[in-house]
Amino acid sequence: MSGTRHVLDNPALASLTGPHAHFAERRGRILRYPTDVSPWVGLPDDPDADDWADLAALAGPGAEAPLPGFRGVLPEGWEITFDLDGVQLVDDGVAAAPEPEAVRLTAADVPEMLDLVERTRPGPFLPRTVELGTYLGIRRDGALVAMAGERLHPPGWTEISAVCTDPAFRGEGLATRLILAVAHGIRERGETPFLHTGAANTGAIRLYESLGFRLRRRTRFLSARVPEPSADGQAVGV
């Protein structure tokens, strides 16, 4: 990454070459998380033909490859499958605080976490996502009803992610309490919280801004399908 760019301009690449390097699967300049941990891919700022070929080989023919933040022109044969404008917000005075009701979630809680994610759709959460950092939850009558945790980890920063609440328990401020608790843990390590959401998710953006986050940049959440090999065995467009 160029020294003139901020570490949050390409947070997946910064994570996979930094604190999350032990997760990285690499081919050339392309890095990614294991597919059961996170869909994020570390793409160079200026991908060339060799990079696209490496990404195609790493993902596999016909697979969907996430291209977070990419705003260039896709090579011939790559088909956009998902395209969403997003925003990145950073801590600008968040009143971080521990949450007495929150419990640390572990691998044993993953089935319940996956069930909550399926019902609330906060974004990608996979069987090993819990390994990326601290995940906190709130239980009622033994059942997991809200959670939030840590995902991308560029040097000096940690992303808050998977913020979700069971619909039956919304309106109680559980998500807010968990966001502040996760932020507290990040701050305790001497790091700074940040997060992403969809640009059209105005309700969430208002909540985050009310908690002390500020808009840092606009970004793009993009996925594209890897071309199938041509008759000569070469992937089209790479």
Automatic annotation (TrEMBL):
Residues 100-232 form the N-acetyltransferase domain. SUPFAM superfamilies: Acyl-CoA N-acyltransferases (Nat). InterPro entries: Acyl_CoA_acyltransferase (IPR016181), GCN5-like_dom (IPR013653), GNAT_dom (IPR000182), YpeA/RimI_acetyltransf (IPR050680). This is GNAT family N-acetyltransferase. Pfam families: FR47 (PF08445). Keywords: Acyltransferase, Transferase. It comes from Streptomyces glomeratus. Signal peptide: none annotated. The keyword Repressor does not apply. The keyword Transferase applies.
